[in-house]
Amino acid sequence: MDINGLDISPQSTLHIIQKEKTDIYNRLRSIREDVEFVTRISAHYSHLPIVANQRCGAWYLDPAIASPEIVYFKSTDGHTGQWDFNLRRANLHLLPLIECSGGIIIVDSTRRGKRFPDALSKTIPIWCCVVNGALASQSKALPLGWNDKLYTSQAAVSRSEHSQMEFRVGDWIKKLTASTFTLSALSKPLRPMWLSPASTLPDLSPDSDIPFFPVICLSASKHVDSQPDGLESRPGFTYVQGSGDDHELWSQGLTPRLFWEHAKALLECSRTELPSFVRALVEQSQTPALAFTDTAQLSAVAIADRFHLGVCSGTLPNNPPLPPPCNAAIIVVPKDSEEDLTPDCASPPVIRLCNPPGKRGQHSFLSSVLPTATEFIRSKLAQGYTVLVASQKGDDTSLGIAIVALQYFFNEAGSYTGEDESRTSGSICSLLRDVQRAPDNRNFTVSKASIRKRLELIQQRIPDANPSRTTLKRVNEFLLTPRGFRRNLPSLAQTHEGSHLLNG
Fold first, then answer.
1. Which terminus of the chain has fewer CB atoms gathered within 10 Å of its CB, N or C?
2. HEC assignment per residue over 322-359
């Protein structure tokens, strides 16, 4: 075929046609069709709260009707042979909402080949079963006939796979009950149910006397089984099953938040107008604020005694007003921030840390950010301050700092324990020397289990706190590895000498 004077092979032509069928224009219109179905289901079961499973589900649920809870059931935890109840994604904050409302609807979607994603067909059923079992093992006051069986859809899970999952349930229950998480009481057990555009809607009215709380696993997209590529023609566009899945591959930087903020304008764009409009939206959303404004602010959530985690938005002044009761803070700023990092005095109540992206940032996090932050927190807590650690939304540097601080200065319940006498000199060099020997100090026990419990403490207060694997590795290395065995770190003198660059 000849296109614009170029001789293109039939295979290349088919590739171009196929790529156009799954482009952003068709995907956004497919999402709109699926949104209409989700909205109808929400209206039908209007007494039940509806939430989006991150990240795919957020494309299909209008924020105007969504409950604000953050939910993350990962499909990987339901993949065949990899089934798991992951404490990093415990989602236990949903239990009070379910008890109060009588159930919940969780929205997600999947691409061609399946009617339900593994998150809906396996991860959530595992979650329901484990929570029911954990409650049964911890309470003697449950209603008679409490049902903690594993329920899966026979259309999505084979009996063999069901049996293999069931075999592991006991271990998952033990893992949950051994954690620091507190389970909210339920008057009925949880039971998953599955709905898709092909489903008949069951009667779940508020006055129906069902012996369980329904956890409706709502798959937003139509299952296109007539075509192997999951595509189906519509007037004016091609329907793409599970369009919201893996949006990094097609969205050109558009996110669910941007989509919903500009949905009307996006869906009114022609195919030729849409890419440039999306680029403009993305660029606008990524432009940092250049000056302090009244909208710049800090939020704070209490994690432990006199210790808070938060999010900073906008560009803050040198001495920003701190949310009470906080009176000292570490603020992690982006690398390209124009904020002045110089402290106003020798012992400032607020310091700013900058952690570069990529491998350089991993090195800086381990060698400079964590030592500097930990020494600041140690000093301020010892002086009676209430400390806030905050970073921009999406930056998990503050989570890494918080885990280390909780390990050093707090017990598993979040009570301030002060510090061992061997760590009271107050200098960063002394602190670093102690970090080196901490794993061997009987008065200061650090293990992967104790680190995990500190993360659980954070997640009980901030359910969507989920640091990256890289950040957790650096935290483990900082706490568990003697300093002499850490990788490519500067000497103690170099670290102490250079720490002032991060102190402001």
1. N
2. CCCCCCEEEEEECCCCCCCCCCCCCCCCEEEEECCCHH
